[in-house]
């Protein structure tokens, strides 16, 4: 039933493949045209284009070049699509390559952007996760195993010229408020490492100077890193250019809400099958600004959770005003400290929150001055009972048994 | 099986009842002592102590005195509880009074603190929700009905003197950064309307000058407004004073994540049954800072959702840095604009998001500069199909039919 | 919102109350008339009308008079209802009386009809279950606790004269195939203990000789004992007589699929709130023979199960042909034998299967000669881990600790 | 991570492949030895070994040779396994072959064994289902689409000589009660079409005369057709012969409880990944007679259902005694009659019940003389609303549009 298949070659550098691009620009040529109703199977490199290896050292995560990431497969052109339409994308299935049944989770070094908790965990870390059918487990993080909720971290349509211009303007304005910050406030266009797909070289060079980086989610979707865009979900994307131009990549085997480790989920190379349809003039009909979507009937259904609260007070006791970012951070820190009582290192616990299907909820957002966020940690994913009891926690995991020195001890 | 019952009298003012208090202070006397393992049934006034009426005018919401709210029933003393213990609270059941099968949802006026979207909806609004067994519906918001996820908006143990002092210090420091702000950044102690339970008058007067207001969630739980603390859940609260001193109130029939309308959930008077137990020295054993909890096996299980994304760019196009608060705001605004296409007024749609069991997820929190939040709106709660289709939305609701002029049209 | 309330008096014998009946007959007078859209709250005695006590002896279960059971509250008349309509019943809520927070589960003695496994457990047994809010636990069955899925075991409309005649004819034909069987094949009309509600005495006496007993489920619903008819569900009942005549009772706090202990669920006295509506001529429109229903959004959502298979081979090794009854029996026996390895007596395990929200599935029904049934036992309801492990089971329960001698040891 | 892969060749007849067998016998040689903890990927033919084609004629279903079916891949030997152990099988993943993204559902002709409703639907029927990622839909059954719950219809360990003898004895005894029945009561050994795997020809010929047919589920599991044995589940199989000898096949993309169409589910060729482990002496430790299993965390989670009841009264009004088989039949017939009101032919509706993830529950099994069974039909799988309403049903499907004449009209 798959009309077309767009392959990638994992043995080649992404720059050598013209079905791939790593910037957003309206002029990137379609690599394939499809009809509404068609199904397409796209192969994707992992988000770093192969920079990370299946080994026991975090050196590659530490040294990754973050301007050379998010290698997207596409853009796919849809006949009849016009700006203002909604592109209906059914995510039919996602999988790892049969011969590549593994993925990685990393925490960037502080210098490289870090992660959500980079102040606490400033060094590069890596864990390798092996896939056992629908489940993943890691030799670097023992005692835990969970069903994947596979999804594309990054998916969306090409921006129009106007939208691109707006992105560049507003993000540069933010950068200008603190241009020397480490990590930077945003990632401006950077031509040197741009891969503009099938654009001719002169045009590509020029477009690259203004083409948007792929880091943030934006109006078109993009790097939204929403774990719920899993197989079986349906997404409605705004169309900005004729023929839509849908691209995707950054496949994840699993991820927790927030992708807090930044590098981030369980990252993998693989394939994704989609079907496209159109709702003509749907943007206006439904007053759509950002993509909307319907979840899948098929998701890991963990029901037993231990839930951690966080409020918007810093570790040093400073009160912030309704800061949901901080509240979620504190919920995450609380969960990590809890898991350490069972023997996990902080970085291991952090990796669990980044990879397992944890939920991050904004529970209270109006009770001044504290936002309240909650982190739902499924307890069924552990080999042992992590619930509180009168006996207190037992040390179930020993960092000494881990086959690598990459973890903090 | 209920060992003890703590009644309230809805026909009396809360100030006249000594089983009630509306401030946090370590010296508020226990109104009842129980043993670990005991079950207690506490009756509670609605959070305003009866200021809001079941009628078609929002005048009472507009004029509410917010220093006279959060009338809590308690504190309950638990024999043997000591600072550093975890108080294990099983929330056994919650209900409305048989003769009071209704609740209210309000949006405060901007002057009164407003709600999450007070810039867009600055005027006071109210909707009355009738309970039909486990479901609620409103004559002010037609076309929608949902199963309640009843919970106490506010529950926690008395703070120690040290903790209270820390709260006052850090919140005052925040206020001092912009002391004249409307709405204020935080709510400092305010003795005039303090209800100190059974404290003797002289001591009460003095304590009231430092007793913490109940608005924000804090380390002890408090006004966390977490919809998931529903009947069947188990909560582990840090204990700060001998005998713990557990109080609760602000019962909600239902609420969406964030309680975005501020007044906020479907607020009700009613009763709550709990059972208490202790984990001795549990705070240290499990490295607990904020309460942790286990969810209930019995919750409304809506599976079909329409999910709205929001990113941290303001309505005027300003880029903010990883601002989850703003991202969730935009997801909410997107959902409201969507629902308006079916005939709802903005305030009606806003009320739905505040009352129905919507989920607010922090989906992406590391992809600089945009946080990505998602709002999960259950579609099964509507009488009509709200999913996108090629036909476009139909006007299913008419504000003209609403029996009141309180809504924006 | 409750339009009308139909009380019962638990301190009086059911025969003394005229809002109650215990037979099905078209001429039983309506005790209350309601309009479509109305809500009604009906109080109900427990199914035995108070024959069973909260104590530690099974003597009352052993001696129960089974011709004096199923005391139903009703019938309620619905204005405008005509034969051929569908009566739409929303089950809004169900509860125990505040002062009666307990229920009972019994196994009848073989002479009294026994239960599903009466050949293995021929003696009368009883367990008392205490309600702790939404959960039940029993001093007679330690180590297990679960959220109730409250429902009426018995609900339906009065039969027409023709339908009643058909019931009597076909059931008598069955009885005639083995009239002296113990237990009997069916329960024929029995006038002596009939309670015909508000029928005048002469008419009642005559009608009682043909009025249908309430034991079996039939076309109108009746004693279907479907645990899923819980609060929040909607049922569509065929209407056979003018004004429908809806009656109900036999309230259950919880029950497993099959109600295998016969007496059977956790039986309780209590109340039920319903709302009625009509689909005119719905029986024909939807080709309805038996009631159909929609489940509730609010049900205990246990996800972790241990699942037992059974096939249609008897204990003595005899092969039966696609006998789903036998297959489910064997699945139940397999589960009981499994639970005995943890220290439960057989009768205790049997009681768990009768009361807890276990699911009984007909998994395979065509693979000659064996039907395959599966019993889904939720593992989260136990205080200890009952999953298989390499260590083998541990004795977690000791019958010696049970405060009664009613159990087999 | 896959240690070993056992291929099949779909282009060859099953008889030509020695990794396949279609009978149960203790002497069938292991085709591969694995260690506890190993993962294996087995490819499987569809259950008919390729007799059914992807076309619009049911002739192949009508003419299928039922003695040449259930081609199982295996047996796999597990080092260290001994009789009395439990073989722990994790079903890691299941899939169709990339180039074979389709399956079939059939109803056998009455002469060929028919299906559950063969008296009503005596003619052969077939529907082809196309896989669109995780979902299936059919050109023969419009308006319906659902997520697959992939599982092996048939899996289990080789029987011991004693167990095989018991099977043959008890099944022959059943056949002897009505030896000329059509369809037959059971399927006795039949040497002519036996495929005994790698047994040497002389030994194979002899063993074939006593080797058990694969049709029924038995103590070892076998053809249990339990839809819940899906990817992510864990099964505990009794071991009867040294090295266990685990075989499997009859892969289903999806199936409803009961597999009522007999041929049956959505049948497919494909592959299955498993991991094996042992619980030594587990049969005795846990008192295991039939396999037990734990379900997957990843299953289609349809929540909205329309539920049909059935009782044990025949279509002609004859009363049967607690006959769960008949009660489930009536629930199925009721659902089919209901679906016909929307335009489906009876055979189409029947095919939906056989293929979609419907649940069949034994709801009441003790209320003499009627068993009560319920069929849960998920309503979300239909493109249109099938719930009852005051307007009545609309004809949404037209048999005239179906590209084949195989359906009854």
From TrEMBL, chains A, B, C, D:
Pfam families per record: FmdA_AmdA (PF03069)
Molecular functions (GO terms): formamidase activity
Swiss-Prot/TrEMBL keywords: Hydrolase
Enzyme Commission number(s): 3.5.1.49
Stored InterPro entries: FmdA_AmdA, FormamaseFmdA
Repeat listed as a keyword: no
Top-level division of the source organism's lineage: Bacteria
Protein name: Formamidase
Organism: Spiribacter insolitus
